Amino acid sequence: MKKGVWSDPLRILTALALGATAGALIPATAGFGTLTAGAVFSFAGDLFLRLLQMVVVPLVATSIIVSVARLGRDHAFGRLGLKTAVYYIATTLLAVITGLVIFNLVQPGRVSPEVSEQLLADVPASVGDVREGLGEKSTGDLADVIRRAVPVNIIAAASENREMLAVIFFSLLFGFFAGNLPDGRREAFAAFWESANDVMLAITGGIMRIAPFGIFALIVQTVQQSGGSALGPLALFFACVAGGLAFHLFVTLAVLMRVLGGFPPWRHYRAMAPALLTAFSTASSSATLPVTIECVEKNAGVSPRIAGFTLPIGATINMDGTALYECAVVLFIAQLYGVSLDWAQQVLVVVLALLTSIGVAGIPAASLVAIVIILQAVGLPLEAIAIVMATDRVLDMMRTTVNVFSDSCGAAIIASSEGETIYR
Fold first, then answer.
1. Residues 6 or more apart from 258 whose CB is under 8 A from it?
2. β-pair partners for 32
3. What is the per-residue pLDDT across 107-147, written as a single tens digit (0 to 9) for each?
4. Is a pLDDT exceeding 60 seen at residue 364?
């Protein structure tokens, strides 16, 4: 790795280890009066996330506009867009199928009636509030995902990080048509947006210098809230999801890198270490985007033209880990309630997991909204989603890591297909 802010993942790894230790040793209620340890770490972690989220919209917009404008000049937009779409759809489908196979083979939800009753009894009494809270979110139907990608007011869409699909759609159009301006005006346009993109990268670099401190606070908060008892009777479910994510991360994507990209997977794992650790700690692919771009460009050698186009799109629509998790949760709940899904229903689960993962924003726990859509489609009770909430935070961190790594693999594989030198 090159020397720089992102080149030393040891700092982030140390922050993770120290945060886990501190979270286990320091009670959240320790402190004086209202100034408790939990409040302090919550404030520090939230401030770090806010700083990252602050730069997401302008960074995504400037990166896409600059990249697409360049592609418009060399007529590569259609070719590169097609490659990106095919890769993202293929890897997400492979991830969903992995989850489907594991949960059909292991069937962690096929437990004794006594254990099933115990799990159902553990559903909090406020499960109605949980359903109401999820129902208030704009789940809609699958057509609504496409509808919301076309903004009525782009300023309003950009004001909420949850509407990143709208920001990306507008940025794609803006960059594409700007790339076809007359020569003199096109150069002036490009100079402005390239400068704006450089400024956003500089701001992001400054924010990420304090990343170990923010990550430390986030991990302390997570451990204090969940503790070691978070898994409980859901250990097998947790193991199956974690195993599926690990298989996709270390087997499926590794094979794709070797076969399609032609470069050694181990070098890419090492190059992406800072982004993977950041993704694991923040559980947000959007918040990790600045780190992902930096690692892919500086450590992997992917050009800004490719990275700036593929990664912002991937951070919003390429959710391999999320799609796998959605499929896993629905199958687990069906097994727990003694419902046998036939092949047609399981195909429906696969398709819905693939499509809804595209519309899930890269923010923590956003996949719960998508799971509601699938539960409704197969006729399972919405209240059951509360059963897996105890393990959701840790698995959210893990599946976000898979999401981010898949994005980076796509950028490297597509760059290699475009003739760029990657790890050679």
1. 264, 265
2. 35
3. 888 776 666 666 655 444 333 443 444 344 444 445 665 67
4. no
Taking CA atoms, 154 is separated from 151, 191, 286, 361, in Å, by 6, 23, 18, 17
Architecture of the domain made up of 9-417: Orthogonal Bundle (1.10)
Domain ranges of the chain: 9-417
Residue 404 confidence (pLDDT) above 90: yes
List, for residues 232-247, the tens digit of each pLDDT value: 557 789 899 999 999 9
Overall average pLDDT of the 177-194 stretch: 83
